[in-house]
Design a protein that fits this description.
The structure is a single chain. By secondary structure, this protein is of the alpha/beta class. The protein has helices at about 1-5, 20-30, 40-55, 70-75, 95-105, 130-145, 170-175, 185, 215-225, 235-250, 265-275, 300-330, 350-370, 400-405, 415-425; strands at about 10-15, 35-40, 60-65, 80-85, 105-115, 150-155, 160-165, 205-210, 230-235, 255, 280-285, 330-335, 375-385, 435-440. It starts with a helix and ends in a 7-residue tail after the last strand. Nicotinamide-adenine-dinucleotide (NAD) binds near residues 212 and 259.
């Protein structure tokens, strides 16, 4: 439970015994997680290994035999670091293990040390206790309580388990004594670490074209980062099934059926989000279409349809969301442009698409400079060729092999390759970025 709750990926166990605890913790780790177990006795490794081999989680476990202190030194020399350490070996060495782990950064700065048996059957509280282990644990508990580097809670679970974490910032008096520059870089903006600054908790977002492909990936990314998400698509069924996915992951979401080429739909979309959640913080204008024809054959109807969704539609979304955001004094608009705004993708012919996406970049640059001093950032993402239903049309599918030879990365993009960039543009860590076209194309536009 603790391994899962702390989202640990690397666990160190000091004292393994039969491997029961090691395997339980390994089950809580992700597939690529790793657990290093220290055990004095070689026979216990030989006893446990066959059981590890039978379990799908056993391969995550590496047993190091010999004195735990020697293993800790070896791990520190190798530059290893753990998210969680479970101390459960010889009690009189607990203080030594604990100090070594903290002094040598074997624990990640916001990791947790769990110490087993820290109440020792309640004996740590008895005045005249003779038990050497109980005395050792009493000394250990006192030592941790007096250590300004950490805070701890002792949970009276069976024999007592201490949960210890490093205090992110040393106390003010410690700071004065040292040569530390106590500024926003040291403490983090608003006290938050760089990764925490990318969280979107409490933010309200919508994503257009979120029923499939890139937009679906964007909706999941914003939701995973903590935002409430309105899933907008012309296809109501697809929008609803993405909401079902998000709900399963505990993400608050609603579906909105809207054709973003229609002004009344765009306004209804923004109004729905505001009436449901009271604000729009993140507007992800992603819906777009692509039609192919040689330029000399491109009809006005194809041109107009493409521009109605890709440029006029994106403009209407920016304007409707932007009006709310300007009033709020806060907003993040992220449009989906395309690498086609930079290069002329080939051999397929797609004049209207290329021109419309170049328009999205210029629209983004213009709004990005016009609204930034009122708290609204406008940026766009230009993906290369992304493996979505858009490129699996009958005319485009045969070109995939041809395209691959144009991509230095040697593969098409997956929607997941774009997710972190979207979250970055949606969060306050990117407040100084505006009018930017963030190109993610595996190097294709450079060849
Ligand atoms: N796939 C790529 O290779 C690629 C590359 C660069 C840019 N893009 C851009 O990324 C965006 C998403 O592309 P994708 O590959 O996920 O496309 P997709 O066709 O897989 O999905 C687009 C979604 O948008 C919806 N949609 C279409 N028109 C709409 C409208 N008028 N109103 C509301 N929803 C509408 C569709 O129903 C669909 O669910 C588009 O703007 C596209 O131009 C895609
Ligand atoms: C309480 S058991 C561990 C139980 C295990 N953590 C679990 O939950 O299943 C303690 C283990 O620590 C080992 N041990 C004791 N002293 C040690 C040392 N100095 N170095 C490494 N292991 C040691 C013992 O051999 C024993 O197997």
């Amino acid at each position: 439970m603790l391994v899962r709750m702390s989202k640990a990926q690397r666990v160190l166990e000091v004292g393994m015994f039969t491997g029961y605890g090691a395997l339980a913790m390994a089950e809580g780790l992700p597939q690529d997680g790793r657990l290093v177990a220290c055990e004095l006795e070689l026979y216990l490794k030989e006893f446990a290994q066959p059981f590890f081999d039978k379990s799908p989680h056993g391969k995550k476990i590496t047993v190091k035999t010999g004195s735990a202190m020697d293993t800790l030194k070896e791990l520190a020399d190798a530059g290893e670091q753990f998210d969680m350490v479970f101390v459960d070996a010889d009690k009189n060495n607990y203080i030594n293990y604990y100090n070594f782990i903290l002094d040598n950064a074997l624990l990640r700065s916001d990791g947790v040390i769990c110490v087993d048996n820290s109440l020792f059957k309640g004996k740590v509280y008895l005045r005249d206790v003779e038990d050497e282990n109980a005395k050792a644990l009493r000394r250990f508990n006192q030592f941790v309580r007096d250590d300004p580097r950490v805070e701890q809670v002792i949970v009276p679970l069976r024999d007592g388990i201490s949960l210890i974490r490093q205090v992110p910032m040393a106390t003010a008096s410690t700071l004065q004594l040292s040569m530390i520059t106590d500024d926003v870089v040291f403490r983090g903006v608003g006290g938050a670490s760089v990764l925490d600054r990318m969280r979107l908790d409490g933010k309200v977002a919508y994503v257009t074209g979120a029923g499939q492909g890139i937009g679906r990936g964007f909706a999941h990314a914003l939701g995973e980062a903590g935002a409430k998400v309105a899933v907008v698509d012309i296809d109501e069924g697809k929008a609803k099934s993405v909401v079902e996915e998000l709900t399963l992951k505990g993400i608050q979401s609603i579906s909105i059926a809207a054709d973003i080429s229609k002004p009344e739909d765009v306004q209804r979309m923004v109004d729905t989000v505001v009436s449901k959640w009271g604000a729009v913080h993140i507007a992800c204008n992603n819906a777009g279409i692509n039609m192919n024809s040689a330029s000399e054959d491109t009809t006005l109807s194809e041109w107009d349809k493409t521009f109605d969704v890709n440029l006029r539609g994106v403009f209407m979304c920016c304007q409707a969301a932007g009006r709310v955001m300007l009033k709020q004094g806060y907003g993040k608009i992220i449009n989906t442009a395309s690498m086609a705004s930079l290069i002329v993708p080939h051999p397929q012919k797609q004049l209207s698409y290329n021109a419309s996406k170049a328009g999205v970049v210029k629209l983004t640059q213009t709004l990005g400079t016009e609204w930034i001093d009122r708290g609204v950032n406008v940026n766009c993402i230009s993906p290369g060729i992304v493996d979505t239903p858009l490129i699996h049309s009958e005319s485009l599918r045969p070109l995939v092999q041809r395209w691959l030879s144009d991509v230095p990365a040697g593969r098409l993009a997956q929607v997941t390759d774009l997710q972190a960039a979207l979250v970055y543009l949606a969060c306050d860590a990117s407040n100084y970025m505006t009018g930017h076209n963030l190109v993610i194309e595996g190097g294709q536009s450079l060849w």
